[in-house]
Structure to design on (630 residues):
């Protein structure tokens, strides 16, 4: 079939960002990510590879440690396409673990430690990894039946046999499996091969002119596919990756200062944070060359005074992180939002109608993607794979596929693409892809809930939030905490509704579906609340409650109130940590917050840290710390 020129954008170089330059064919077809990293270790073993709050690793150290761990994995039965779980904090060890899995031929499976135990248990049950690489403090989050490899005790010394390279698998084997929110009510695992990952890497290296001199960042959480993008292009190029501390990565002012202090040259920053950090004062001599953003709709253009380039990126997890990319100009052209750009190397974009026919330039249609970046499919979901990855009618290549994104888009006159939202009920919350049906599926299982739906809205700051609407069985009166605690057993905190509205019946439109336009906005008269309220009693509890109330815009917070169930999230959690540090001079971690999310629990952790600090302080220092706790 003749290819319509309005339906497909071919790879055309665009300076200074070489969006469409083909690079995959310039490299060995059977190259794998770990072999490219090994070349860097052989070339410059003393060069810095990874840096975090817990230390640094050179390329030589990264290579030897990951090789040693890979031998352990092989001995445990890991082979090509076998999943291996990674339940690790953001640190250089995360990269060591992932690289070891690739060397052993396996596919690493990110397990964000902040996820509820039940969600982690589902991912493990669905993916069935041979082993889970973790840390001692994370083990309690894993089901007992899963074999673990704990890295805290360190890896044994590398023997001559262990130092031999481990080269298992090919470019067609899986590199990683990452789970996204599922419309069926359960998360679904996306299978990405080395070949797909290499296409992203080779495009990235040329587009952003990456060299060993670059200093880059790791900021995304482990379960977010942007973390893939933050590691492998740079480690295959010999650049250094610097892990941004949790206390910094969600604070615009501190992140701005940190990027400058560490002389970072390229950094990914999720869209909501990028929009805030762009408005800060940046010195003209900043080392930052590119700020990459994505994962949500970019709604502003950068100021002309910005001393670096802002690059907007778009791509579903099913297309290996990035499918289109564009430098965002400082001047707003017309009345549309910043475009998502043009396709990256070896990638084709089609905008089609319901009959799979191309729409004219300027008309709205569903965005479809083709090219080597496409995933193999969904793990254990053959039917869904066939539904979403369809034969490409515009290609003469046997087996070529299109991925149906479910996103609405249109071509602009200059050939760029404008993103226009979702066809279905899938949305983005702080960069995470959320299927509303997954939340509805869990909430509807509560014994008190007869019917329910979930909609998205915006809070007073313009940030997206979720609102649940429930019709309850007669004589049922669940509290707000009861429903949120029920959801917390299966869903991560970013999927918690910020409010629960009680209705007598869901509004139904003429098509028989819930009429979302008729759903009322939450207000004090229709939202569920907790009946029991316990006042904070100790000075530390009172101060913690005040901190949380101010951050969440609440009039009061009780001693038993759960920070995350009140509407808090990991981003706001880092602000709690910062306030605790300034108020009590002790350092909480996000893991502390997840394990002890109530005011009483947080206050107890602060007291514990104060006591531990008192034991090693002088009398004068101890008195000062005690004064802070009063």
């Amino acid at each position: 079939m003749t290819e319509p020129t309005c339906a497909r954008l071919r790879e055309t170089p665009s300076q200074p960002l070489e969006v469409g330059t083909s690079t995959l064919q310039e490299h060995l077809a059977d190259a794998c990510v770990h072999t490219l990293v090994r070349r860097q270790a052989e070339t410059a073993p003393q060069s810095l590879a990874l840096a975090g709050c817990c230390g640094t690793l050179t390329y030589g150290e990264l290579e030897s440690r990951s090789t040693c761990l890979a031998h352990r994995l092989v001995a445990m039965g890991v082979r090509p396409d076998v999943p291996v779980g990674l339940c690790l904090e953001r640190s250089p060890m995360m990269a060591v673990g992932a690289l070891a899995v690739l060397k052993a031929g396996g596919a690493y499976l990110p397990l964000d430690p902040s996820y509820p135990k039940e969600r982690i248990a589902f991912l493990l049950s669905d993916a069935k990894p041979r082993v889970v690489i973790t840390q001692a403090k994370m083990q309690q989050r894993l089901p007992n039946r899963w074999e673990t490899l704990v890295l805290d005790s360190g890896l044994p010394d590398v023997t001559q046999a262990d130092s031999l390279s481990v080269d298992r698998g090919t470019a067609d084997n899986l590199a990683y499996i990452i789970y996204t929110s599922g419309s069926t009510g359960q998360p679904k695992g996306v299978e990405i091969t080395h070949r797909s990952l290499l296409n992203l890497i080779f495009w990235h290296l040329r587009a952003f002119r990456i060299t060993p001199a670059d200093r880059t960042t790791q900021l995304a959480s482990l379960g977010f596919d942007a973390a893939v993008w933050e590691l492998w292009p740079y480690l295959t190029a010999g650049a250094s990756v610097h892990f941004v501390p949790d206390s910094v990565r969600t604070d615009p002012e501190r992140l701005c200062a940190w990027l400058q202090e560490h002389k970072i040259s390229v950094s990914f920053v999720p869209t909501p944070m990028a929009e805030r950090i762009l408005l800060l004062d940046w010195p003209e001599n900043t080392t930052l060359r590119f700020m990459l953003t994505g994962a949500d709709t970019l709604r502003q253009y950068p100021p002309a005074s910005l001393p670096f380039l802002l690059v907007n990126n778009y791509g579903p997890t099913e297309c290996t992180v990035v499918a289109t990319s564009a430098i965002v100009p400082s001047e707003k052209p017309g009345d549309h939002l910043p475009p998502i750009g043009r396709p990256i190397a070896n990638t084709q974009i089609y905008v089609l109608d319901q009959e799979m026919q191309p729409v004219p330039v300027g008309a709205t249609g569903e965005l479809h993607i083709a090219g080597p970046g496409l995933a193999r499919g969904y793990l254990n979901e053959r039917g869904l794979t066939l539904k979403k990855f369809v034969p490409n009618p515009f290609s003469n290549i046997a087996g070529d596929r299109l991925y149906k994104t479910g996103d609405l888009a249109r071509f602009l006159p200059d050939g760029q693409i404008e993103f226009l939202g979702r066809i279905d009920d899938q949305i983005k919350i702080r960069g995470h892809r959320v299927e509303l049906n997954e939340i509805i599926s869990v909430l509807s299982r509560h014994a008190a809930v007869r019917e329910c739906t979930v909609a998205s809205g915006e809070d007073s700051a313009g940030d997206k939030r979720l609102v649940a609407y429930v019709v309850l069985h007669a004589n049922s009166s669940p509290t707000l905490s009861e429903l949120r605690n029920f959801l917390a057993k299966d869903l991560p905190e970013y999927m918690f509704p910020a409010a629960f509205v009680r209705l007598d019946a869901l509004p139904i439109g003429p098509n028989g579906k819930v009429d979302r336009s008729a759903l009322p906005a939450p207000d004090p008269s229709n939202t569920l609340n907790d009946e029991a309220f316990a006042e904070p009693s100790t000075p530390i509890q009172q101060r913690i409650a005040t901190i949380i109330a101010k951050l969440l815009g609440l009039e009061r917070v009780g001693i038993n109130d759960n920070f995350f169930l009140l509407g808090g999230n990991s981003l706001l959690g880092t602000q709690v940590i910062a306030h605790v540090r300034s108020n009590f001079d002790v350092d909480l971690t996000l893991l502390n917050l997840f394990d002890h999310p109530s005011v009483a629990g947080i206050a107890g952790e602060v007291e514990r840290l104060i006591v531990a600090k008192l034991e090693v302080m002088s009398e004068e220092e101890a008195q000062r710390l005690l004064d802070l706790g009063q």
